[in-house]
Write a structure and sequence with these properties.
Number of strands: 13
CATH superfamily of the largest domain: ATP-grasp fold, B domain
Strand content: 15-25%
Helix content: 10-25%
Distance between the termini: 43 Å
Order of helices and strands: EEEEEHEHEEEHEEEEHHH
Oligomer: single chain
CATH class of the largest domain: Alpha Beta
CATH topology of the largest domain: D-amino Acid Aminotransferase, Chain A, domain 1
């Protein structure tokens, strides 16, 4: 008996006569002209390596999580999502396969950096703090422990690597990459001063700490 659409594992999309413009570590991307169709597959990437065994419905879970946060933060910053349910021809013929794991989005020009806001000393931030006492060049109090909460959220940019690992960088290095006008705008949008963060406010209602 064939698997139902909800349980079928999709390692990569295979639509007759349609070739993706790109296949990332997890997502297949189709060029629709002024839009893109982004399909989250069930591929699993860990430490920049695509593992051989996909996870059933991982792409659906990933997409639904993304849509939730895009909707929650839409008043903080506009996003690129146009629809997660309506797919143009000829992709509408593959609606069952696309359902739940796909978005039609605006084409945009991505920033050459990752805009990371940290609330806790964890992950690569903890690694940097242990070796330098700083995260992305920002000096922090001595004696912090792993996953301690920071006194205030920090804008801690990183590179956006096309291969290999992203690297934490200072704000000044970020400004060199994206420009001295865009860097402050990115920081104030990602971590607006004196403004509650909807994501950080929501997370405790689900017994979660938003590390970054």
């Amino acid at each position: 008996m064939s698997a139902s659409p909800a349980s079928r594992v999709i390692r990569e999309t295979q639509f007759a006569g349609l070739t993706p413009a790109a296949r990332g570590k997890v997502r297949d991307i189709y060029d629709l002209g002024d839009k893109l169709l982004i399909v989250a597959t069930d591929r699993l990437s860990a430490f920049d390596v695509v593992l051989p065994t996909p996870i059933p419905d991982k792409g659906r879970v990933l997409t639904q999580l993304s849509l939730f946060w895009f909707d929650l933060l839409k008043d903080v910053i506009p996003n690129h999502v146009l629809s997660a349910t309506d797919f143009p021809a000829p992709f509408d013929a593959h609606r069952e396969e696309l359902a739940g794991r796909s978005m039609v989005v605006c084409k945009t020009q991505p920033l050459a950096i990752e805009c990371v806001v940290r609330g806790y000393v964890s992950g690569s931030g903890w690694k940097d703090y242990r070796s330098t006492g700083k995260i992305c060049g920002i000096a922090l109090p001595r004696g912090l422990r792993e996953s301690d909460r920071l006194p205030e959220p920090l804008f801690t940019p990183s590179t956006k690597a096309t291969s290999g690992h992203d690297e934490n960088i200072s704000f000044e290095q970020a400004a060199t990459l994206i420009g001295k006008d865009l860097a402050p705008a990115s920081r104030s949008t990602a971590a607006p001063p004196l403004m509650p963060n909807p994501a950080a406010s929501f997370s405790p209602t689900r017994n979660l700490n938003l590390a970054s």
